Amino acid sequence: MTPDVPAPGGAPALRLTVLVGEQDVWHHRPLYAEIVHRARAAGLAGASVFRGIEGFGAGSVVHTQRLLSLSEELPVAIVVVDAEERVRGFLPQLDELLAGGVVTLDRCEMIAHRAPDAGRPGGGGGGRG
Question: Fewer Cβ in 10 A, N or C end of the chain?
């Protein structure tokens, strides 16, 4: 199957992953929270934040949650999946927010399981709550 042809019930989509540090902030608010709230305001299908248990970035410093580690700067991944044009339309907001971190885009297939009109402007939903 080619990446541009959806399977029955699926639709081509783009997965946006933003990797930042847990302690990164935007105007006294956690950066990951600002990204999620902006994604919601932009009408994207949904966003989730995943806290890493260990990782390293450009500085090659390993951050871990192990008990004896003094590091509190754990990696955080914010993942958004929606139609390509919607995700690409959101990228300028990330340019405004990010001074560092990594952003990746991956083609994927979206199979949405949501009730109609589930909290998204214009219908749809995504996520919980």
Answer: C
DSSP string, 35-53: HHHHHHHTT-S-EEEEE-S
Instruction: Give the closest residue to 35 by CA, choosing from 58, 14, 19.
Output: 19
3-state secondary structure 5-16: CCCCCCEEEEEE
The total number of residues shown for the chain amounts to 129
Residues 99, 105, 111: CA angle, nearest 5 degrees: 135
CA distance 87 to 80: 8
- Read off the pTM: 0.72
Residue 113: exposed, middle, or buried by beta-carbon count in 10 A (0-12, 13-18, 19+)? exposed
What is the Cα–Cα distance from 14 to 39, expressed in whole angstroms?
14
Per-residue pLDDT tens digits for 23-55: 899 999 999 999 999 999 999 999 999 988 876
